[in-house]
Specification:
Largest sheet: 2 strands, antiparallel
Order of helices and strands: HHHEEHH
Shape: globular
Radius of gyration: 14 Å
Distance between the termini: 21 Å
Strand order of the largest sheet: 1-2
Structural class: mainly alpha
Length: 120
């Protein structure tokens, strides 16, 4: 189990580095994660409000083939992010291949690694 955790952590670092090489900016992703304006959100909530200290996120969040969010099956992590933007933030989905999504996806491995992927 320890080996799997180590491999997942290494993969998370790789994903963050790959995102940086592709022009994604994890630092901007961090700002977006804490922004109530993401996707034109109207609820005043942020990603951080629901996922403070990594709540409901783990290294497996980055590698799943499918997700189940509030009983809804979703095929990609970008799709999960857009679901949250639309439902929790009451905003509009952002382009799945756009700069904002890439920045958020580059930030998530850093966020999960720094928070141990554990709910606190």
């Amino acid at each position: 189990m320890k080996m799997i955790t180590t491999l997942l952590a290494a993969f998370s670092v790789f994903l963050a580095a790959a995102g940086s090489c592709l022009g994604a900016d994890a630092r901007y992703g961090k700002l977006l994660f804490a922004s109530p304006a993401l996707g034109g959100g109207a609820s005043g909530k942020t990603c951080l409000a629901c996922h403070e200290h990594g709540r409901d996120l783990s290294p497996e969040t980055l590698t799943r083939k499918t997700y189940l969010v509030m009983g809804n099956p979703i095929g990609t992590l970008a799709g999960v992010i857009n679901f949250c933007i639309e439902v929790a933030l009451r905003g509009e989905a952002i382009p799945e291949n756009g700069a904002e999504m890439n920045d958020l996806l580059a930030y998530l491995p850093v966020f999960i690694r720094n928070n141990g992927g554990k709910a606190q």
